[in-house]
Amino acid sequence: MSAPLTIIGSGMAGLGLARQVRARQPEQPITLITADGGEDYSKPLLSTGFAKRLPPERLAARSALEAAESLGVVMRPRTRVEAIDPAARTLSIGAERLPWGELVLATGAAPEPPFAVPEALAGRVYTINDLDDYRGFHAALAALGRPARIAIVGIGLVGCEFANDLSAGGHRVELVAPEATPLPRLLPEPLGLALGEAFVEAGITLHTGRTVDGLAPEGERVALGLDDGSRLAADLVLVATGLRPRSGLAEAAGLAVGPAGILVDRHLATSAPGIHALGDVACVDGLNAMYVQPLQAGAKALAATLAGTPTAVRYGPWPVLVKTPLLPVVSLPPITRPARWRIEGEGADLTALAEDEDGRLIGFALTGACVRRKVELARAAPPLLG
Question: Is residue 137 classed exposed, middle or buried when 0-12, 13-18 and 19+ CB atoms within 10 A define those classes?
């Protein structure tokens, strides 16, 4: 039997690709290797579970064994690949040399805290990027046995979604970030201000324009020192300051890698024959779009390519739906810097249209009741990757 299609990573990209390949090639041998537990779950649910008081097991649709049986794949959970040999077409796992026929890197992206975490605070400072992380943070909250005071560092997509979710779950939340308004990469300032006001009205405290100088134990709590000399005390700290593609394995193997991930073409092929990259780790023709719809489009296109029908990936004008029920938010951030933002509406119901020098729509952002315009505006906007 020929060497299998091997996928490294069991997140939405890895399992999504396995599903697409299996639908096209019922007999194709597939091996899926993952450093985590291999459960089949939807990552976007991680930032909605605390308000619903969902234990970790409720977020997983299937265990690793159930997912493997359903897809007819060999699943190797809790297994870390140490090296790739592109010439020999093998993976190093300890002393084992595992052959592969085609290799797909779906290793995702990892949080990158902007400060060192003292060892004494290891059980009180968290990031949440996968089900294992959610499990750990959920356990820490449960151990307190009461509503927690939580400091969230970062006011991007992840920070804002968890702030909304944890506040709705009954916890006291304080947001700290150097930016002036929430969601700075997705919203122009007037819309960010509207979201910030909705947070404040719900009891969330904002410390904008502030950076964290350091963390220190303070009894049973964590003391956060801010750059203006002030200090916050929190039971737990959640760091949500962005993600960096996990491209170290590819770089060590000599593949072309950039700041935005593993460099791939429109067919998701890397610089090494027989190796593709998919999802948050892949920079496709210069663009890394860390959202669900581009990931799903990539999995579908790559499955067709691996089945013998070369298919270039295309990204449509897909708006990002931010999970902040306190104020609904939808954004299609422009790829290039807009010449202007045209703001319409009043109160928290705002439309922001990003336009180029010729007045053409290149992106938009919506809050409140204006989110109903998302379909209309998406039809008029250019694709992310045409």
Answer: buried
Paired sense of beta strands 261-264 and 231-234, if any: unpaired
Taking the C-alpha atoms of residue 127 and residue 250, their distance in angstroms, rounded to an integer, is: 24
Q: What gap in Å lies between CA 198 and CA 184, rounded to an integer?
A: 16
User: Residue 365 in contact with residue 195, Cβ under 8 Å?
Assistant: no
Question: Which residues contact residue 376 at a Cβ distance below 8 angstroms, ignoring those fewer than 6 apart?
Answer: none
- Taken in order 118, 79, 282, 256, the sign of the CA dihedral is positive
* Encoded amino acid at 289, one letter: A
Q: Which amino acid is at 70?
A: S
Q: What is the pLDDT of residues 153-194, one digit of tens each?
A: 999 999 999 999 999 999 999 999 999 999 999 999 999 999
Give how far Cα 274 sits from Cα of 90, 270, 296, Å: 11, 8, 21
Query: Quick one: three-class SS letters along the chain?
Result: CCCCEEEECCCHHHHHHHHHHHHHCCCCCEEEECCCCCCEECHHHHHCCCCCCCCHHHHEEECHHHHHHHHCCEEECCCCCCEEECCCCEEEECCEEEECCEEEECCCEEECCCCCCCHHHCCCEECCCCHHHHHHHHHHHHHHCCCCEEEEECCCHHHHHHHHHHHHCCCEEEEEECCCCCCCCCCCHHHHHHHHHHHHHCCCEEEECCCEEEEEEECCEEEEEECCCCEEEECEEEECCCEEECCHHHHHCCCCEECCEEEECCCCECCCCCEEECHHHEEECCECCCCHHHHHHHHHHHHHHHCCCCCCCCECCCCEEECCCCCCEEEECCCCCCCEEEEEEECCEEEEEEECCCCCEEEEEEEHHHHHHHHHHHHHCCCCEC
At residue 17, the 3 state secondary structure works out as helix
Collapsed DSSP state (helix, strand, coil) of residue 360: coil
Over residues 305-351, the pLDDT tens digits come to 999 999 999 999 999 999 999 999 999 999 899 999 999 999 999 99
**Minimal CA–CA distance to 245: which of 255, 236, 237?**
255
Structure tokens at 180: 């002036």
State pTM to two decimals: 0.94
